[in-house]
Amino acid sequence: MPPWLQLMTDSLPTLLWAALVFTIPLTLLSFTFGLVLGLVTAIARLFGPKPVVAAARFYVWVFRGTPLLVQLFVIFYGLPSAGILLDAFTAALIGFTLNVGAYTSEIIRAVISSVPRGQWEAAYSIGMSWSQAMRRTILPQATRVAVPPLSNTFISLVKDTSLAAAITVPELFQTAQRIVATTYEPLILYIEAALIYLALSSVLSALQVRLERRFSRYGGFLEART
Fold first, then answer.
1. Which domain does 125 fall in, by range?
2. d(Cα 223, Cα 55) in Å, to the nearest integer?
3. How many domains does the chain fold into?
4. What is the CATH number of the domain that holds 23?
């Protein structure tokens, strides 16, 4: 076996373990919390009072207008100056959640706004409250439109988690860096890490296609449950 292939074979379990223990959980947790935050922010911008709308706009403006890496540095390295100490994983989770929330809020706000006004009027005409109309009529229709951009955000987040290496989270990319520090084979190991990211993204892209077909065929997951 060629030395480069032996190195990749030996390092693969370690890299996969880092992806399983840190990269994937960080992605799932950040996206879940970010999606909830994005939904709350979008609703606040669309239906909240002026002070709430202003606060939501400011949050989105800040986190969409600054680099994610800078945000992570501010949270992990900057907050200790204010007496707030966070471990690396928690800091990364907060940073990714806030960043994802800002971007998903714009997606959700756009898809809710795209639902025709007549759908609101129809819901009110049969006695629904605002929350019932939102839950039973508006969100099911908006969800179908939101699936592709939200899926793309999720796939991008998988790759963006590599930035957590900069604040010492031992995820996939930083694990590759640590192995490079002992083997002095950056080309081989970084290519191997890239291939793992590529495999994860490819699987998620295939799942995205299936999810879009399901929503197209059955009218969305939310409607399927009602």
1. 3-225
2. 32
3. 1
4. 1.10.3720.10
Amino acid letter for position 196: I
pLDDT tens column, 148-175: 999 999 999 999 999 999 999 999 999 9
Task: Return the axis-axis angle of helices 24-47 and 88-114, rounded to nearest 10°.
Answer: 40
Residues, the chain: 226
Does pTM top 0.85 for this prediction? yes
3-state per-residue secondary structure call for 117-170: HHHHHHHHHCCCCHHHHHHHHHHHHHHHHHHHHHHHHHHHHHHHHHHHHHHCCC
pLDDT band (50, 70, 90) for residue 224: very low
Give the Cα separation of 126 and 52 in Å (integer): 30
Rounded Cα gap, residues 170 and 178, in angstroms:
9
DSSP result, 84-125: ----HHHHHHHHHHHHHHHHHHHHHHHHHHHS-HHHHHHHHH
Average pLDDT over residues 176-182: 96
Per the CB < 8 A criterion, the answer to whether 10 and 178 are in contact is no
pLDDT at 223: 44
End-to-end CA distance of the chain: 57
In terms of Cα–Cα distance, which of 75, 93, 73, 96 is closest to 84? 75
SS3 1: coil
**Two tokens, residue 76:** 């992990």
Q: What's at 146, amino acid-wise?
A: A
